[in-house]
Amino acid sequence: MRGPIPLAFAFAVFAAAPGEVAGQNRDAINDTVGTWEISNADRDRTCIVVFKADAAPGGYKLEFDKTACAVAFPPLKDVVAWNLLPDDSVRLIDGKGKTVFEFNEVESGMYESLRPGQPLTFLQNAAAAAATAVVRSTDELAGDWKFVRGSGATICTITLSKTAAGKEDFALTVNPGCDAMVTRFAPSSWQIDHGELVLKSAKGQTWRFEESDASTWQRVLEGPDPLLLMR
Predict the structure, then answer these.
(1) Sign of the dihedral through C-alpha 124, 207, 212, 79
(2) What is the 3-state secondary structure (H, E, C) of 165-198?
(3) Quick check: helix, strand or coil at residue 161?
């Protein structure tokens, strides 16, 4: 993953037609698309967003778990697009074109938004955010875990082993009685990557989880019913 990316370029999103913006600023947009983290000052509330280069009303498309992120940052429930302006700010906008968050660079790769009625909120490249997070060790994470839906229902239990299963991977055991969603994925190994817990299948598929606390991890970009890994 890339490190923090400067957003210093000038163009007027609202002054040009979407096709013109996309054509004239393709390199700048391509340098900015990717995975970013929104967080509060204590970084105990986070949301992962993925900036896309595809045009959307008022700016460009983005992807995020709207249900989960809106719990941490309620204004995100209305966000439908992102854009970049001549003052180097990153704006998240709603379906009516109104600015919901406006992030301005305060240091290299770190942006903050402070709007009326909102707490101070930060935006940074997800890889940089992960690098500053507490990195859990293999010993800390090894052991029994359960998959839990957002509704609170346990759908599977697994065991993370400290037995090597490749250059950087460790073995994983799926215990009997698991939900079909887990058995279809069939995780067989795990690793820690940029602060995230990554489960891998023999087919090369991955599920990535970010830490909520030491005993709870949530799948990244999960749908409206979040999937958790819990002790």
Answers:
(1) positive
(2) CCCCCEEEEECCCCCHHHHHHCEEEEEEECCEEE
(3) strand
Residue 130's H or E segment, with its range, is helix 126-132
Q: What is the pLDDT of residues 83-122, one digit of tens each?
A: 987 767 899 999 999 999 999 888 767 889 988 888 899 9
d(CA 91, CA 95): 13
Q: What are phi and psi of 207, to 5 degrees?
A: -120, 130
Is the distance from CB of 175 to CB of 158 less than 8 angstroms? yes
What does pTM read for this prediction? 0.49
Residue 218, strand partner residues: 210, 228
pLDDT band at 5 (very low <50, low <70, confident <90, very high): very low
C-beta separation of 126 from 5 below 8 A? no
> What is the enclosing helix (H) or strand (E) of 91?
strand 90-94
Domains of the chain with bracketed CATH: 18-131 (2.40.128.10), 138-230 (2.40.128.10)
